[in-house]
Amino acid sequence: MNTYARQALSFTRGEGAYLWDDKGNKYLDALGGIAVCGLGHSHPALSDVICEQAKTLLHTSNIYHIPHQEQLANKLCSITGMDNVFFGNSGAEANEAAIKIARLFGHNKRINDPMIIVMENSFHGRTMATLTATGNRKIQAGFEPLVHGFVRVPFNDIDAIRQVAKNSKNIVAILVEPIQGEGGINIPDSDYLNNLRDVCDEFDWLLMLDEIQTGMCRTGKWFAHQHNQITPDVMTVAKSLGNGIPIGACLASGKAANIFQPGNHGSTYGGNPFATKVALSVIETLESIEATALATQQGKYLLDAFNESLKDSDIVANIRGLGMMLGIELNQPCTELVSQAIEKQLLINVTAQNTIRLLPPLIFEKTQCDELVSTLSQLIKNLNGK
């Protein structure tokens, strides 16, 4: 179906931070499959596990115990301090599970019309519930009636949340990205998540963090909320959990951990032996390369290099980032940069019309950082001739 405005480009293989098209041209991948390929392409450790598991067992269904699923759940809970996990196949499915947990939590409190606070400029998926939660009218248009049960407030605005708390007795949860990815790499105040945690504790709400884009070492911690030393009630993860193999997870802790009971939720494919074995290998490989330190180091190098290279550009409004999640905001639309970068054999993304979003593999080397900064900075300077 005609659902993607695709570039006239087709890749046949990848290795590390590079992709090759069907004409043999080599491209530097600074998008990482939209924050999916944290370990780059064709990582040998993952390739070996994929081949081994494909020859052993792919699927049994959740009617039975799945040892790899249980091992992965234990690993994720160990990393995060969460209590348990539901496995699906995507970020949207993980967020659907979170929304269902919040609603069931509300009904268990005898709230018949439970409401979830969500943010402007957010992105949580394209299912009916998650696109309603998303703060982007463009992706909602034409799909009305949207799902009832969401209250929207500005991102990074605690006062707005407290105002909602005054006016509504039906709030049961807050759903928020620690850093807004699709919204333009919007980084909140350093104490924003701590304040959200305090508000949720005060009003007995669930704090639900969408870490689908920020998770798996992307920001220099396993998950972005760990910079704030808090624990959410619910957290979702997907994207780079499988490094390209579809898997999503919804983690819960404390009062949210035992809300789901048998029959409340399920997935045919979710957490199958193949996907969970690969995800286990992803985590083990990230640990072996000390990916959190790597993302911190290389992300700072990129941020400093872009600030230096573009310091005299009068069209650059802001350069921001945390770890290997960077945004270069211009004071004009710049979607044409995507195709211009392709001509220079560089893969980037523009989101929110005017923000260049960079989500390189965590394995980016210094020479690749330099290549990215040099190529992209020149393209930006060319937009206004300086």
Question: Can you walk through the features of this model?
Answer:
The protein is an alpha/beta fold and 386 residues long. It folds into 2 domains: 11-37 and 290-383, Aspartate Aminotransferase, domain 1; 46-288, Aspartate Aminotransferase, domain 2 (3-Layer(aba) Sandwich), CATH 3.40.640. The chain has helices spanning 32-35, 44-54, 67-80, 91-108, 128-133, 137-140, 158-167, 192-203, 273-288, 291-309, 337-343, 366-383; strands at 11-15, 18-21, 26-29, 84-88, 115-119, 150-153, 171-176, 206-210, 234-237, 248-252, 316-321, 326-330, 346-347, 349-351, 355-358. The strands form 3 sheets. A 7-stranded mixed sheet has the order 4-10-9-8-7-5-6, sandwiched between helices. The chain starts with 10 loop residues before the first strand and ends with a helix. 46% of the residues are buried.
For the structure shown, list the relevant keywords.
386 residues; alpha/beta; Aspartate Aminotransferase, domain 1; Aspartate Aminotransferase, domain 2; seven-stranded mixed sheet; four-stranded mixed sheet; 12 helices; 15 strands; globular
